[in-house]
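Changelog-adjacent note: as of this version, every example in the card shows the full chain rather than a window. The one below runs 108 residues end to end.
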Amino acid sequence: MDSHEQVAAELKMAEAARASGNEGRARVCARRAAGVAARDYFARHGVRARTASAYAVLKTLAETSGLAPDLRQAAVHLTLPVTETFELPIDVDLITEARRLCTELASL
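Full-length structure tokens:
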């Protein structure tokens, strides 16, 4: 499965998880989709990811100079820790953020 197929599969699983009421699972799938896109972006730009962790790759992406601020912010949102009640500390749709990040990174 290539990276585009992996991204599509993860986003589909994220939507299904949300539809079934499992927002935690939806966040994980959205983060994994974005992680695949970020690794692919880095590979196309000659940067080897040091880890398979979507979280770590997104943290690196958030710190990448030269990347549009809104894309770096999306990476930050996708790595936000949840609160003690398993909620995000801000109102953000991580599936939408992941979808936008994946689309934009694929064009860079």
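Structural remarks: The two ends are 21 Å apart (CA to CA).
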